[in-house]
């Protein structure tokens, strides 16, 4: 699947995971149910597991015992800044105008959400016979449904000098006009019910978010750029998946049994600090890997202690934490570090920070730069301008529980956390090749 199709079919985290699942199923991966015992695993097994429908780990098991080989792991995140629909969201205004109550998710550039044809996506929980296990249905309303209208410049002459926006007042999307003003309550539930073809009374709750219905597209003199929502971090999710599926690896190579085990870990909630059961701060990855070591030791008939092998696995592993970076911006060159100017189209960017916001150190950077070199891919470096605080990402959060050697890297974008970010088509090809070298080389 190409990046544009992947982005268009993945308006929010839940849909991104569903899109990944489809690709994995088509490639012969089986789904591990973590409520069941992990049965025997054999070299070459391809499996995946999901958590909360919004996080996914895919694993391609190698021939070597995990304690000996460790894993080669690529991490990325599937959530992006957006607005979450609040409970009881309908607000009836004069003359039958209905808007929806929302709250901000993550660090969006809010002004970019004005005047866009928006819609809803996420998951809906339905009543089932078991109160502890409601039924989950994904919702992706594809047609434009909502809009957050800007205020005319005539009412705000300072608009181009910078405007302070209120999340609660300025950012509420308008849903429409109703004739029967008594029926505005429960309007959204009725809408969801009709889209899912279920009874509104059976909807127990939902995790629904706004997204921009404008599709991703190529742009530029030579179509060298991509303009899309959620490049951060779905472009890295896409690249990790292409590498896991062996899309740019020779067919003989994908049929050979590899020695090393490859893991692709897609986490949720990076944009809110990763501190959830489906985020990078969760013990879930560690638990799955521990179970894998135990199952593999048993399957291979090894007599070594699986607890010891688990710790050996960690020491023998290498992590690539892949999250987008800031590319040098033609209008804001002064925001960058004086001597490091990573550009769009210049290849993957290794991110390093003295305050250790990134997991990269000289060892991790050395490994990743050599992988790029072997893949024939250029690479670049990012450090913050020393007077400008930068962002953070997954790598450090994950390595606080699983102390892998590793690197923080990502492709460059302009306008990170805008409703539409700009990236490079060439960089996507480069990073897929680099990740494929890391997994298969
Ligand atoms: Co990110």
What does this structure look like?
The strands form five sheets. The protein has a nine-stranded mixed sheet with strand order 1-2-3-13-4-14-18-16-17, with helices on both faces. A three-stranded antiparallel sheet has the order 5-6-9, with no helix packed on it. It has a three-stranded antiparallel sheet with strand order 8-7-10, sandwiched between helices. The chain has helices spanning 3-8, 13-26, 66-69, 187-196, 231-244, 251-255, 284-300, 306-315, 362-375, 395-399, 425-440; strands at residues 30-31, 46-51, 55-60, 71-77, 82-92, 97-105, 118-126, 135-140, 174-177, 203-212, 217-219, 225-228, 261-267, 318-322, 325-326, 349-351, 380-382, 405-410, 412-413, 421-424. Helix 7 packs across helix 8 (306-315) and helix 9 crosses helix 11. It is α/β, with parallel strands linked by helices and 441 residues long. Cobalt (II) ion is lined by residues 77, 232-233, 270, 323-324.
């Amino acid at each position: 699947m190409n990046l544009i199709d992947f982005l268009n079919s993945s308006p929010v985290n839940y849909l991104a995971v569903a899109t990944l699942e489809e690709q994995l199923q088509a490639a012969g991966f089986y789904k591990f149910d973590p409520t069941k015992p992990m049965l025997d695993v054999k070299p070459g097994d391809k499996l995946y597991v999901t958590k909360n429908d919004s996080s996914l780990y895919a694993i391609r098991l190698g021939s070597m015992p995990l304690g000996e080989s460790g894993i080669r792991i690529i991490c990325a995140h599937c959530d992006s800044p957006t607005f979450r629909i609040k409970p009881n969201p309908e607000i009836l205004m004069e003359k039958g105008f209905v808007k929806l109550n929302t709250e901000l998710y993550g660090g969006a550039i809010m002004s970019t959400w004005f005047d866009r044809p928006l819609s809803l996506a996420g998951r809906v929980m339905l009543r089932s016979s078991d109160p502890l296990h409601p039924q989950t249905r994904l919702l992706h309303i594809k047609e434009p449904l909502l809009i957050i209208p800007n205020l005319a410049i005539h009412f705000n002459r300072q608009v181009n000098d910078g405007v302070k926006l209120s999340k609660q007042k300025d950012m509420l999307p308008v849903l429409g006009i109703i004739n029967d003003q008594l029926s505005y309550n429960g309007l959204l539930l009725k809408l969801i019910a009709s889209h899912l073809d279920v009874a509104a009374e059976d909807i127990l709750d939902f995790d629904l978010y706004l997204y921009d219905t404008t599709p991703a597209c190529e742009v530029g003199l030579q179509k060298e750029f991509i303009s899309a929502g959620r490049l951060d971090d779905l472009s890295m999710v896409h690249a990790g998946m292409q590498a896991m599926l062996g899309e740019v690896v020779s067919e003989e190579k994908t049929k050979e049994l590899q020695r090393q085990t490859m893991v692709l870990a897609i986490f949720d909630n990076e944009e809110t600090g990763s501190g959830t059961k489906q985020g990078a701060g969760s013990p879930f990855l560690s638990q799955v890997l521990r179970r894998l070591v135990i199952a593999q030791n048993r399957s291979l008939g090894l007599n070594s202690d699986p607890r010891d092998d688990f710790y050996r696995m960690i020491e023998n592993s290498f992590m690539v934490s892949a999250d987008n970076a800031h590319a040098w911006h033609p209008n804001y060159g002064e925001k960058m570090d004086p001597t490091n100017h990573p550009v769009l189209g210049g290849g993957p960017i290794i991110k390093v920070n003295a305050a250790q916001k990134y997991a990269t150190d000289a060892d991790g950077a050395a490994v990743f730069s050599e992988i790029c070199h072997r893949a024939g891919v250029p690479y670049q470096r990012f450090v913050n301008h020393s007077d400008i605080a930068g962002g953070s990402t997954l790598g450090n959060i994950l390595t606080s529980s699983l102390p892998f050697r590793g690197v923080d890297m990502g492709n460059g974008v302009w306008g990170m956390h805008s409703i539409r970010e700009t990236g490079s088509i060439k960089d996507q090809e480069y990073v897929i090749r680099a990740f494929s070298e890391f997994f298969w080389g």
